[in-house]
Structure formats: structure tokens, C-alpha cells
Design goal:
By secondary structure, this protein is α/β, with parallel strands linked by helices. Among the domains are: 253 residues, no CATH class; 122 residues, Serine Threonine Protein Phosphatase 5, Tetratricopeptide repeat; 73 residues, no CATH class. It has 27 helices and 13 strands. The strands form four sheets. Strands 4-1-5-6-7 form a five-stranded parallel β-sheet, sandwiched between helices. α16 runs antiparallel to α18 and α20 packs antiparallel against α22.
Length: 972
Amino acid sequence: MTPFQASLPSIVIILHCAVEYFDPHDVFKLLAPGLVPRLPLRNLHWQSHAGPLRSIETLHVELIPAGDRNSLTSPISSPPSSQPRADNDGFQTQIGTVVTPTQSNEAIDQPSNRNSVPARRHQIPGLRRTPYLKVLLVRCDDNDSYKSHVRQEIRDWIKANTPPSTSKKANAAENHDAFEWLIVHVVIPNTVAATQPRKSDVGSGADKSSAASRWRPGSSTLLEKLRSDFNSSSKSGVDRVSQIRIGVNDVPYDILPRVVPAVPSGYTETEQETENAWTDLIAKFRSLILSSFDMRVSQYEEDIKEKDAQRSLPGWNFCTFFILKEGLARGFESVGLVEDALVGYDELSVGLDMIIKEQGLGRSGSAANALPSYTEDLKKLAIKARATILEMSYDDDDEDEDELVDLQSSQSANTQPEDAYDDIPISANKKPYRDLIVANNVSVFDFRCYIFARQIALLLRLGNAWSTREELLAKLKEQQESVLHGVAPRAPPPKHKENEQEELPMLAEICRRTLEFIPSVCQVMRKDLLNALSERPVDDENAGAEAATQADPITSEVIDNLVVSFAFSTAQQILAQTSTKSLPIPPSSFGPPDGHEPKTTIPEPKTMMHPARSSSLNVRTGGAGVPRPPPSPNVFPGGPRPSASDVESASSAFLKVGLEELAARRAELYTFSRNILEESGKKRGWSNGWSQVPVVSESTIVNMVDIDLGDDNVPPVQQKPTNSPVSMSGIDSKLLRTALDNSDDFYRLYEILTDKALRHYTVAGHTHSIQTTMADLAVLKYHLGDYASAASYFWRTTPFFGESGWSLLELSMLIMYSRCLKQLERKEEYVKVLLKLLTKAAAAEHDRRAARSSLKAIGKEYPQTEAIKGLLDGLLLVTKAKAISNEMRIPLSNFISEIEMDGTPDYDQGRDSMSVQMKVDSLLVDDLTIDTASVRIASASAKPPKEILLKREGPIVIKPGKNRLKLTSNVG
């Protein structure tokens, strides 16, 4: 496993609904075996204030114990749990697990007692993550203990954890972190509480009489006392009390009460009553969480509307508005409304663009929104990389440039800063972005990266990507395993399985956004670096281009390396995150003849592997345009049951939704990565082969230079110096650094990326892209001298370009194809390809001559002769050597445009013979030497037909263009 793979799952932040529990009597470990298997909550419905009814399919609940400062007088024995890792903005990545509070400044807020100093609320809502529901776990074994201290403990907890009813303004501030509360009475076996029914009038007949004999008339049960004391007296009040009874087999022997109550037990709770109690508890969880969420959303929407209306006022700050609106988006995400959260971030992205535009135009009122002109981390990286280049150049001043590059490539691994942008550049927890935004100290580059990271995280969750799903399932399993071992679970595992099928359109949307994000953010990054390394800040794009041309070669090299590394790593990160088994990627189209993988320093990265579709893939039917099969024969009497082939075809059709788009977008990302590698290789003198391709449209005329006759004061564009240093300082992508270390690794990765793009284009069905990528592989193999592989690719792709009108490109490829066949000594194929090449070149020459004096020739290119000259001699040499087994007949019209008589026949004096002058117009670029030329003249009216044969023995040389041949006959 590569370091990139090992750290990948941690880049996805999944927010969940936090439920805080206070366990002063150490009973959560008894409640957890029955509660945890019933989580997450499913099929919740929330009525939006500004839209239709929203359905939450799955709501993952994060159970969090309260802090020690909430402790009551009773001692606390906290259940064992693992300490989670918190990200930089205080959102824990634990999913559904029982965790302890972190020490982060923005972690879960712990309410304090009235006697303690209250926690200071930040003036900007949305910075803190607070629970939606606070649960008090109570153990009360009898009525006496309830009266003596338990009731007062509950009152103290409620007083310390519920906000007071004060002014409307204070309530509005509290609504940003609104929560509900619940009391859960956990009943232990062998206690008086366990012998009480839930209601004093429970049962009928014998059961009722036995209960009346044990209890005094009018006495209430503990559950009724709790509800009477802590529930609202109004009919519309919320029931905030639940009771869960623990079975005697579910309590460890060491904590089971040894003394059986003196009151004889005549009440036994049935299994159905136990299940009803759990159902009631889960229902309260659902309703109270949605109630808290509804209050929060209402308050956020009201504040956002108010802040947005103040946009034109002086002092309005976008960063403050961003944190407020992001608080609403994160609230949507925490309850599973990911689409609404994504819309919020998309709106914030547009808002950021507007602020940047206003800042660039220098409009009034934008001073409060002024962002730093550069990123401090990028500046440190650039300074470090530039110092490395200068140090290397001073140490090796007498060495040539190639040796300088080799030295840097071998030692640069030890000179990279520790906080370099590694192979995971896009992550919301890479920096304390939210802290920087709150302080209005976030650069445009960091701002864009953070918003894009949050958008990608949401799209990955919508797409059910493996990096999100596997982390989620692992955490859910960890939660279920965290319950007390050795205790029989009181609830079976949930029957509902997590959907294992990725949403391919969402993954394709991630790739599409990435293809738009990388070019735009790279411009921002380049401008950021220019600002960091120059004395004068760059305000607009024109000034940025001018500053880039005036930068010294070392600075330009450092900036290029940092930008290239970031772009390449981002593309590779998204490719790894959107990989899925649902893409039926065909096997690799290249490989050594013996089937063994060559040993090289750059193996094919596992993050770029795409296994074929698994036969056990769980495919949902009933998608768009796909009819659902009847659920059972009883639904449609007499209707035929779907056959296995019908079901398979329906599944294949459903899987097709989004498949081609995802394959095409991923192919574009592979091509984008390859282009980055190609440009970096050019600086080191490594070519992909296209620069050495024989160009048949190449002319011998000297290239002309366009001269601007407009403004004479415009300074000429400064060309980048040819002696600029070439270094890998600033390139932090491990994969890219390995590929640029030597030419073998460069060509190996170039071939891998091209092959990956080809295989994805094949799945997408993009014919032109398939043929273009295959041509790239053919040219690369030809450039590297692998003529067998190159010939195979040329054989497959050359006809396509000829049929598509790319005649000049087809001729160039036919030339390379013929050279490959010549090297391989495949003479019959070599002759056929040369004949095809010469035929097409002659046809192009014929068209050029026909259009020479007409308007058709304007704007159209025709092949020149330099690259085709000499091929005819090679063809004749092979044919004269009789290297081909079968005779080939080629029509003369393929190479001769005109054959006509020049004047009248001449009769020889004193001989029984005649001669004829023939005009022959050759379309070939070389002299054609023939052995015999003959012409047959036939009379169409004579009966029987009469023929005259005119002939001339060779050798006869037919030059390109007009030729005259004299043929004679011995028939007068």
C-alpha cells in the first residue's frame, strides 16, 4: 500500500447528529447493547420552512459522554472508550461511535453548573458543534431513593443544561445551538423498581388484583412520578421520560444487586412490552432531534437573510457571513440532507467569486472583505525551494545543466519542507481553515481549496463512494463492538444493509468539477506565489502575466514546480476517490510479449487500478427507464415471471446510468495528468514522440513571423530564457518526482496514464478520443523503438483518420507504420502499407493540382514531398527481391493522372510499323523506372474487333509531372 492509499480515508469528513449523554450512575454500558444495534435512525421526515417535505433516509447518531464538570454528587464510572481524532475545525470524524470529549477549542461544548463560570459563546454562530439532544441516564431502584436524592439530582441537571426563559434576543442566540433533553430511567434487575409495572393500573383480572394487593391504593410507579415531576402539564407537552428495563441475563454478575426486595415480585414484563419500550425511546430520539434541528434551521435562515440584506452597508464582512451560512450547511449535513448542504457551499463559492472580483476592481466598501494577497505556507515552500536551487547551483557551478538536474533529483527528497503539499492536497482538515476565515486571514487560494474540499466531501457522500462508505461501515462496526462484551445483545442486528452501489453520476460530477477547478485554482496559486515572492502585489491577470515574464528564471522554475505538483496531485487524488468496481474497465492494452511485467522503479500505482465489474455486485433495479420486475406472481396473476436474462439486462441498463459519463470524465483526468507530465518532461529534453513525427505538410518555405503594425509603443514579449534551470525543488508529488527522476520512469508513467485514458474512453464509447489516444501510444512506441507494439497500434488506428478526413495525419502515420514493418522485416505488410501510402499521396496530389487554379484551394493543406521521397525506391527494391509470395496488381490510375495521345500516329518510312507519342502525368514524388510500357488500340466498329499493340522496352524512367513516351508497333 502506498502512502497515498494509507492516508486517503482520513480526508473525508462525515458529520453526524451528536447526542450527549450524562451517566452519573455508570449504566450506559448496560443500555448500549440494546441501543447501539437500533442505530442509525432511518426514514425521518422534516418539513422545510422554504421548501417541500425532506426525507432523511439514514441519520447517524454520535453518542458522546458529557464532561466531568457536569458530574452530580454521585460518583461516575465512565465506560471505556477510545479517544477519537478531531479535525482542525472541531468536527470529529468518528462515526456513530461512543467517544470522549476532545481537547479542541471548538469541540463539543460542555454545559457547566450554575456555580461554575459559563462557557463563552462565540459571537459568530456556526463555529461550535453542539449536541441536538442531551440525555440523562438515571438509575433509581426504589421510591425512597427517588425522594431522597435522585429527584433533586435530575432537577439540578435540568437547571444546568436547559437555557433560561429570558428575552427574545437571548433565545435567538440560543437557537443557533438549540437542543432538546430526555430522561431515560434504566431499571436494574433484583430491585424494587423492577417489580413495579410501568403504570399503576396495569393488567386486568388476577393481575390487577395482585398488583392492588402489593401497592397501596393511589400509589404511583417510578415512571409515573418521573413523568409527573418533569413533563409539562399541558396536553401538547412533550414526553421527556422513557424507561428501559435491563434483563437479569444482561447484567454482569459483579454488578447485579445481591439482595432481592422484600416485596414479592408478581409483575413480569413481557417481550412485547420490552420491545415497545425500545420503540418508544427511539421514537423520542427521532422527534426530539428533528425538533432541535428545526429550531436551528429557522434561526440560521433568519440570521442569514438579515446579514444578506446588509451586504451593501459599510463594514459588511464576507468571512463572517461565510461562517454563518456554513453553519446552516453543516447542520443540513449532520442530519443527512447532503443535497441542501451542497447547495449552500455552491452559493458560497459564487459569493466568494463576487468578493474577489470586487476586491480586484478596488470598489469602495470592499476593505472589510480584503483577503491576504498570498498564502504564508506557499511562500515558505517557494522560499525553501528557491534556496535549494541556489545552493545546488553554487555548489555545482562548474557542472553542466544535465548534471545539475541529476544532482537535485537525487538529493531533493531530503530538502522538502515537512508541511509540503503532499499527495492529498484537497482536504478540509489539512489546515485550520475555519480559524483563518474567522480571523479574516485566509488567502484566496486557501479559501477556494477549502470550499472545493467541502464540496467534494459532500459529493462523495452523495455518490456513496468507497472512501466514504467503507469508513462509515467500519465506524458502525466499531460502535457495535464497543458495547459490553460477554452480555447477550437484546436487539438483533439491523436487517437494513448499507447501499453498496455507488451513484456513478455523482462521481462523474466530482470529476467534472475537478477539471474546472484545477485550471482556475492554478491561476490563483501562480498569482499567489508571484505576490509572495515579489515586492509589488499583483492585482489583475494582465499584471500577473507581466510579472511572470519579468520574474527571474529560478523564481519561474519554483512557481512552475509548485503549481505542477499541486495540479498533478489533485488530479490523482480525485481519481483515487472516484474509483469504483462498477466501471467494467477492459484489461490493459500494453504489456511485454512474454506476459511478465517489466521491473521498473515506477510500478503501476494501485490507486490507479480499476478492477472489472464483480459478479456479486449488488445492482438495484427499477432505475430511470428500467421496468421493475413483478415482486411476486400473486401481484400480476397470469403474468410471466421475469427470466434471468431479463433481470440481468435490466440490471445492466440501470448500471449504465452515469457509467459512460464517469468513464469519460476519469479519462479526461488521466489525460490531464499525462499532459502535466509531458510538459515537465519537455523541460528535461524528453519527448512523447510527436515532435519527431514525419510531417507530410511540411514546406521548404521559410516560416514567416507576424508583425503587429498597430501601436509601436507596445514592448515586445520577452521570451523565457533558454538557459533557465531545471530542478525538482517544489515538486512534492511522490509519483511525479519518481517519474521525472529519469527518462525510463518518465516514459513508463506516460504510457500508464495514456493506457488508463484509453481504457476509460473505451468504456465511455468516445470513438475519436479512443483513436487519438491509441495514436499517442503508437507514436510513443515508435519513438521508443518498440516497433512491434507501434505497428499493432498503427494497424488499428490509421484507417480511422483516413475515413475521418485527417488525410495528412494518416499519411504521417502510414510513414511511421511502414518504417516499423521494415524494421520487423514483415515484407508483405510493408509492401501493402507503402502502396497504400503512395496511393493516398498521389490522390492528394491530384486534388491539389485540380484545385490549384480554383477557390477550393484556399484554406486547404496538401501534402508536401519531403517526407514521401525515397519510399518508391524502397518498395521497388523489395518487390524485385521477390520477397512477397503473391503477385499484386495495382491499377495505373492510382499513380498516373493523365494518359493521352500527343498528336497523330507516325508511320515509319520503309517499315511496316507505326509510333505514337503518349503524354503521361505522374503523381508520384519519385522517378518510376518501368521495364515495359504497352498500349492496346482497339476498333469498336470493326467486326471482328481489330487490335493494335504498341510497346516499348525499358528501362523507362517516368519522372514526377509531365512525361512523353514514344511507343511503336510493327503493324502498319
